[in-house]
Amino acid sequence: MKPTQSGAATGAAEASDRQEAATLLRRVLLQGKYEALTMLRNGEQLILAVVLPLLALVGLTVTPFLDGMGASRIDVAVPGILALCAMSTAFTGQGIATGFDRRYGVLRFLSTTPLGRGGLIAGKALSVLAVLCLQVAVVSAVAFALGWQPPVAGWVPGLALLALGAAAFTALGLLVAGTVRPEATLAITNLLWILLGALGGIVIPAERLPAAAQGLVGFLPSGALGEALRDAFLAGAVNGGAALILLLWTLVAGAAAIRWFKWN
To answer: How high is the pLDDT of residue 121?
Structure first.
């Protein structure tokens, strides 16, 4: 009797199913999950992403530095703290992580896998958004407890501009991480975090900065994001000029990162 092919065919089909590659979307989601969990498990990154912004929020709320801004201290402080969260995660955190991944050959290895370079970058962007959502939830909870009263109309433009700001800072972080040595990336991103956080218009409104800096900070991604979020969460308005500046930073830094990024 001639042997049937059903068993062999079934086994071959099962083997094919087991060996079938995951879809690009699934690969990106898994990479994003891995990147986000790695950032949250790192104590230094967690301090930078959550603890320091919360300390700044409380500090600005209990001191008179933001008095005379036409709103309560907490209402003025929260938009800047949310912008600081975006810069912490998208620029400093992602820049440092990417720089050291590049140093140890992780980027070169992953870029040759089915994930690919595009999938790797998409996963990193997804991880930034995931961590940023957690930051927004934590900061908002503390802010509400301290008396924050944002207009309902400000949430949609505020969150959209926050995402745009995160995109701009992610592009800048990848540009730095992909063009200089990891040790230099660590120094540059931390130094810029301090300078932009203190003097870049992100936490402290431009009008409270020295006169020489007021005309400049509005063109920085930090100043544009801080101003855009204050307009959204204080008045429920969309600052079109600030949004345009953030978009230009995203496009220019993104194009530069694509052009000069070194994978090894």
So the answer is: 82
pLDDT(10) > 50: no
**What percent of the chain is modeled with pLDDT above 90?**
54
The CA distances from residue 62 to 15, 56, 153, 172, 245, in Å, are 64, 10, 27, 33, 32
Under 8 Å between Cβ of 227 and 239: yes
Q: Is 17 helix (H, G, I), strand (E, B) or coil?
A: helix
DSSP class of 218: T
Q: Which residue carries 């065919």 as its tokens? A: 9
Provide the token pair at 67: 């008095």
Q: How far apart are CA 255 and CA 236, in angstroms?
A: 32
Q: Would you say 97 and 35 are in contact if contact means Cβ atoms under 8 Å apart?
A: yes
200 phi and psi angles, rounded to 5 deg: -95, 10
Is the model's pLDDT at 131 over the cut of 90? yes
| Confidence (pTM) | 0.87
Please give the C-alpha separations between residue 218 and each of 6, 81, 128, 196, 202, in angstroms, as whole numbers.
Answer: 70, 17, 24, 12, 10
Burial 40-71 (b: 16+ CB within 10 A, else e): beeeebeebbbebbbebbeebbeeeebeebee
Q: Say which residue the tokens 């703290």 belong to.
A: 81
Nearest to 129 by CA among 37, 49, 36: 36
Q: Specify whether the CB–CB gap between 175 and 256 falls below 8 A.
A: yes
Please give the C-alpha separations between residue 158 and each of 26, 152, 182, in angstroms, as whole numbers: 29, 10, 33
Helix/strand/coil percent split, the chain, to 5: 80, 0, 20
**Calpha distance 196→130 (Å, rounded):** 23
Residue given tokens 């540009």 in the structure block: 175
How large is the average pLDDT for residues 234-248?
96
